Amino acid sequence: MSQEKPKAVKTVQLILWVTIAIGLVRTFLEHQKVTQEVAASGFGSSFVYFVTFTSLAFMALQIYLLGKGKNWARWLFVILFAIGIPTVVMQLMKSFSTDPIFTSIGAIQTIAQVYACVLLFTPEASKWYKRKVQG
After folding, report:
1. What is the pTM (predicted TM-score) of this model?
2. Which residue in 128, 86, 92, 105 sits closest to 29, CA to CA?
3. Each residue of 42-56: pLDDT tens digit?
4. Are the CB atoms for 33 and 43 separated by under 8 Å?
5. Contact (Cβ atoms closer than 8 angstroms) between residue 124 and residue 102
6. 74-128: per-residue pLDDT in tens?
7. Domains of the chain, residue spans
8. How far apart are alpha carbons 132 and 51 in whole angstroms?
Protein backbone atom coordinates (compact mmCIF):
# COMPACT_ATOMS: atom_id res chain seq x y z
CA MET A 1 0.00 0.00 0.00
CA SER A 2 1.33 3.43 -0.94
CA GLN A 3 2.36 5.74 1.88
CA GLU A 4 2.53 8.74 -0.47
CA LYS A 5 0.21 11.60 0.43
CA PRO A 6 -2.75 11.68 -1.98
CA LYS A 7 -3.34 14.65 -4.25
CA ALA A 8 -6.65 15.34 -2.47
CA VAL A 9 -4.85 15.80 0.87
CA LYS A 10 -2.22 18.05 -0.71
CA THR A 11 -5.07 20.12 -2.19
CA VAL A 12 -6.77 20.33 1.21
CA GLN A 13 -3.58 21.62 2.76
CA LEU A 14 -3.14 24.22 0.02
CA ILE A 15 -6.75 25.40 0.30
CA LEU A 16 -6.51 25.71 4.07
CA TRP A 17 -3.15 27.55 3.99
CA VAL A 18 -4.65 30.01 1.51
CA THR A 19 -7.70 30.55 3.72
CA ILE A 20 -5.38 31.28 6.67
CA ALA A 21 -3.44 33.80 4.60
CA ILE A 22 -6.66 35.47 3.47
CA GLY A 23 -7.85 35.53 7.09
CA LEU A 24 -4.68 37.29 8.20
CA VAL A 25 -4.99 39.89 5.44
CA ARG A 26 -8.68 40.45 6.26
CA THR A 27 -7.82 40.89 9.95
CA PHE A 28 -5.34 43.65 9.18
CA LEU A 29 -7.55 45.32 6.56
CA GLU A 30 -10.58 45.28 8.85
CA HIS A 31 -8.62 46.62 11.84
CA GLN A 32 -10.68 49.82 12.22
CA LYS A 33 -14.02 48.03 11.89
CA VAL A 34 -12.96 45.34 14.36
CA THR A 35 -11.74 47.96 16.84
CA GLN A 36 -15.12 49.74 16.75
CA GLU A 37 -17.10 46.50 17.15
CA VAL A 38 -14.89 45.36 20.00
CA ALA A 39 -15.24 48.67 21.83
CA ALA A 40 -19.02 48.28 21.62
CA SER A 41 -18.86 44.72 22.98
CA GLY A 42 -16.73 45.62 25.99
CA PHE A 43 -13.71 43.51 25.04
CA GLY A 44 -10.36 45.10 24.26
CA SER A 45 -8.91 44.81 20.76
CA SER A 46 -5.95 42.90 22.23
CA PHE A 47 -8.33 40.16 23.31
CA VAL A 48 -9.88 39.94 19.85
CA TYR A 49 -6.47 39.73 18.17
CA PHE A 50 -5.36 37.11 20.70
CA VAL A 51 -8.41 34.98 19.91
CA THR A 52 -7.96 35.53 16.16
CA PHE A 53 -4.29 34.56 16.13
CA THR A 54 -4.82 31.65 18.52
CA SER A 55 -7.54 30.34 16.20
CA LEU A 56 -5.27 30.74 13.18
CA ALA A 57 -2.43 28.97 15.00
CA PHE A 58 -4.76 26.12 15.93
CA MET A 59 -5.86 25.87 12.30
CA ALA A 60 -2.21 25.82 11.19
CA LEU A 61 -1.58 22.92 13.59
CA GLN A 62 -4.63 21.13 12.16
CA ILE A 63 -3.30 21.55 8.62
CA TYR A 64 0.06 20.17 9.68
CA LEU A 65 -1.55 17.15 11.35
CA LEU A 66 -3.84 16.56 8.35
CA GLY A 67 -0.73 16.45 6.18
CA LYS A 68 0.88 13.94 8.53
CA GLY A 69 -2.02 11.56 7.99
CA LYS A 70 -3.60 11.79 11.42
CA ASN A 71 -7.10 10.37 10.96
CA TRP A 72 -8.30 11.84 14.27
CA ALA A 73 -7.21 15.30 13.04
CA ARG A 74 -9.33 14.81 9.92
CA TRP A 75 -12.39 14.05 12.03
CA LEU A 76 -11.66 16.84 14.51
CA PHE A 77 -11.34 19.35 11.65
CA VAL A 78 -14.67 18.34 10.14
CA ILE A 79 -16.47 18.28 13.50
CA LEU A 80 -15.19 21.71 14.52
CA PHE A 81 -16.00 23.09 11.08
CA ALA A 82 -19.54 21.70 11.27
CA ILE A 83 -20.03 23.19 14.75
CA GLY A 84 -18.82 26.60 13.58
CA ILE A 85 -20.59 26.81 10.23
CA PRO A 86 -23.97 28.07 11.54
CA THR A 87 -22.26 31.00 13.28
CA VAL A 88 -20.18 31.78 10.20
CA VAL A 89 -23.23 31.73 7.92
CA MET A 90 -25.18 34.00 10.29
CA GLN A 91 -22.25 36.45 10.45
CA LEU A 92 -21.93 36.46 6.67
CA MET A 93 -25.64 37.11 6.20
CA LYS A 94 -25.59 39.88 8.82
CA SER A 95 -22.58 41.70 7.37
CA PHE A 96 -23.29 41.35 3.65
CA SER A 97 -25.31 44.57 3.39
CA THR A 98 -22.75 46.64 5.31
CA ASP A 99 -19.52 45.18 3.95
CA PRO A 100 -20.14 43.22 0.75
CA ILE A 101 -16.49 42.95 -0.34
CA PHE A 102 -15.11 41.47 2.89
CA THR A 103 -18.25 39.37 3.30
CA SER A 104 -17.82 37.96 -0.21
CA ILE A 105 -14.21 37.10 0.59
CA GLY A 106 -15.38 35.39 3.78
CA ALA A 107 -18.00 33.46 1.82
CA ILE A 108 -15.34 32.31 -0.65
CA GLN A 109 -13.17 31.17 2.28
CA THR A 110 -16.09 29.23 3.74
CA ILE A 111 -16.91 27.57 0.41
CA ALA A 112 -13.24 26.64 -0.01
CA GLN A 113 -13.24 25.08 3.46
CA VAL A 114 -16.40 23.10 2.66
CA TYR A 115 -14.64 21.79 -0.45
CA ALA A 116 -11.61 20.88 1.69
CA CYS A 117 -13.89 18.89 4.03
CA VAL A 118 -15.31 17.02 1.04
CA LEU A 119 -11.82 16.25 -0.28
CA LEU A 120 -10.78 14.81 3.09
CA PHE A 121 -13.35 12.06 2.61
CA THR A 122 -12.70 11.11 -0.99
CA PRO A 123 -11.95 7.38 -1.36
CA GLU A 124 -8.26 8.08 -2.02
CA ALA A 125 -7.87 10.31 1.06
CA SER A 126 -9.94 8.01 3.30
CA LYS A 127 -7.80 5.03 2.34
CA TRP A 128 -4.62 6.98 3.11
CA TYR A 129 -5.89 8.19 6.49
CA LYS A 130 -6.94 4.67 7.48
CA ARG A 131 -3.69 2.97 6.42
CA LYS A 132 -1.73 0.96 8.94
CA VAL A 133 1.34 2.84 10.08
CA GLN A 134 4.41 0.73 9.39
CA GLY A 135 7.14 1.12 11.98
Report:
1. 0.81
2. 105
3. 666 677 778 878 988
4. no
5. no
6. 999 999 999 999 998 998 888 888 888 888 888 999 999 999 999 999 999 999 9
7. 7-129
8. 36
